Amino acid sequence: MKINITKENRIIDIAKVIAPILSSRDVIANLEQIIIKAFSEKVDLDFKNVKFISRSAAYELLRLKERVFYKNKKQIRFVNLNQNVSQMLKIVAAQLAVEEKKIPEVKIKEEVIPM
Amino acid sequence: MKTLKAHNPKDESLLQQLIALYSTFRNLLPNERVEFNLEDLGWAFPLLILPISSYIRDTKSTFKLPKDQSPAFYLQTIQFPGGVTSVSEFQKIKNYIPIGVLQAKDRVERERLETCFAEMIYKILKPTVAVENAIYLPLTELITNIFDHSKKEEGYVFGQYYPTKGFLDLCIIDRGRGLATSYKEERNLNFTDKKAIIQALSGTSVKLEKMRGFGIRVSKRIICEGLEGSFILLSGKAALYSSQKEEKIFSLPGFYWQGVIIGYRILPPKRPVDITPFLEG
To answer: Which InterPro entries does the entry mention (chain B) (predicted)?
Structure first.
């Protein structure tokens, strides 16, 4: 989909441009291309019809926001987030800011498959 | 050409479905072209039908429909074995979940088709309590894993709600490189299939980046602890079975699935599920 982002119109409708449920990491790369080409230093990502974002997609989106700010001098703003999306982005942002916890190896009982 | 007879499970449990899947695919050479004999199949459940469907698509194998009209009609309805590959095909469907084939190449179309599946699953389940996040998270994380790790162009999804039995069964599959090979190729870690499953559940990521290795572990916890369901993860020649009551890992002699099969069962939720503790834990 070809989208022109200008100073006057700097909104990307996420549900329209991608989908109402954001799932995959790799689809965030599509957004990055649109943002880099934008004729505006500020871009609003509009989540108005987005129902849910996976943790993986939230992580990629937050990294994208940071990356384009430092590399391309572009500011991204997330707008119209519902509670699900807002909560996911907050949790992932908090986890990005701290040292990752080491999870102990799980112990699982080994058995012969019953036939 | 070898014939593989599809096995019926001894009962409705997810564990018996795993055994029926194992019995059906046992003694198969890698990517061998076969004929699936479904003539005596009484119950066409996702954990058997989706692996057969993906195998047929991948190897150009053939099949014989069930003799009984009811499962035969059901298979035609869910578009076995070809499945639905686009949003426009999906939009013709009103109230059931077809076999879905998600393709890596068109990311946006894939994301929209995945949304169609997730919304249909939610619509059919008709939850009366707040569980939207708990339904969507495992589905989205397990599907994104396919396109992050499998190195294959296609992933498969299928589900069936059984209102009289009182559960929803879902299956998500790839025919890619599998967990053990992913660890070997990405991080030079040598794991058996069993060990690779244990590592995936322990949060060991195939990729070295921060905050990876989350999807399988948290999805399994939300399904088993949050939604009080059960969960199967199969890769290569090993399988995990997990529920709130028990967790077991099996070797599958004479069997090898190239890729990953995930099957899970959830009951219609009776209480709200907050996924935050699972995400933070």
So the answer is: HATPase_C_sf (IPR036890)
CATH number of the domain enclosing A16: 3.30.750.24
A2 — pLDDT class (breaks 50, 70, 90): low
Asked if A24 and B108 come within 8 Å (Cβ–Cβ), the reply is no
Mean pLDDT of B152-156: 95
CA distances from A17 to A2, A45, A112, B274 (A): 9, 10, 49, 29
Would an 8 Å CB–CB cutoff place B144 in contact with chain A? yes
Question: What confidence score (pLDDT) does residue A71 get?
Answer: 92
- Work out the number of other CB atoms within 10 angstroms of the CB of residue B86: 15
Look up the ipTM and state it. Answer: 0.91
Give the closest residue to B117 by CA, choosing from B148, B147, B86: B86
The reply to whether B103 touches chain A by the CB within 8 Å rule is no
Contact state of A91 with B276 under an 8 Å Cβ cutoff = yes
Please tell me if residue A97 touches chain B, with a CB cutoff of 8 Å.
Answer: no
| Within a domain: A17 | yes
What pTM does this model have?
0.95
B168-194: pLDDT as tens digits: 999 999 999 999 999 999 999 999 999
Nearest CB partner across the interface for A108, out of B18, B140, B247: B247
How many domains does chain A divide into? 1
Residue A37 lies in a domain: yes
Q: Which amino acid is at A91?
A: I
Judged by CB atoms closer than 8 Å, whether chains meet at B214 and A114 is answered as no
Cβ contact (<8 Å) for A115 and B199? no
Taking contacts as CB-CB distances below 8 angstroms, the residues of chain B near A100 are 210-211
Q: Which domains does chain B have, with CATH numbers?
A: 82-280 (3.30.565.10)
Give the number of beta-carbon pairs within 8 Å between A and B.
136
Measured CA to CA in angstroms, residue B7 lies from B26, B42, B99, B159 at distances of: 11, 9, 20, 19
Q: How far is A23 from chain B (nearest CA, A)?
A: 5
B46 confidence band (pLDDT: 50, 70, 90):
very high
DSSP B59-94: HT-EEE--SSHHHHHHHHHTTTTT-B-SHHHHTT--
State pLDDT tens for residues B226-278.
Answer: 999 999 999 999 999 999 999 999 999 999 999 999 999 999 999 999 999 99
Whether A113 is covered by a domain: the verdict is no
A contact test, residue of B26, B107, B280 with most A CBs within 10 A: B107
